Amino acid sequence: MAILKAGSRLRHLVATLLAWSWTLSCTLLPTVEIQQGKPFPNVLLEDAEGNAVALDLKSTGDNIVLVWATWCPPCHEALPGLWEAVKGLPSSQRPNFILWNIDRDPNTAKAFLRQRIPNLGDAVIRFDPEGRQFQRLGAPGMPATFVVMGGIVRAVFVGYQPAGPKRVLQILQAAQAKPANGTKD
Questions:
Q1: Could you say which of 1, 14, 123, 175 has the lowest number of CB atoms within 10 Å?
Q2: Taking the model in full, what pTM does it have?
């Protein structure tokens, strides 16, 4: 009987230590808040094979970054709507479409995408198992959509609204219409 109690206490101790280590790792990560008008911070994510890949948007032109998860019902609405809106743009105006998934198991996300949006074309899919990079960036909420042009955050959208994809495209197209020096021709 004493052995059973000791085993139970040990399991409880291990579970408590794991919970504390998770809490400390999240709170000790340096936080970099994503702000409109500021550079989009570099983050280290994973590709489909689990390789570490830097997400550096400073020299990649126009980007729409959608942070999502399969367990997030509003993400189920935001993802296909935003993809359809981006896909409908002329290729000369189409931004890079980056899907940043925070599911613990990337295979869950891959299966979800194959089933719900089978033709993602040239969308870039990156994974942040555990969501640690997203937490480091202040995790504003889910889904989170960032319009990033020339490495600068032009807009941040949190949550889902039916008019969201249209608003994202309006901001993107308005910014594309302005010359880089901010003056009109």
A1: 1
A2: 0.77
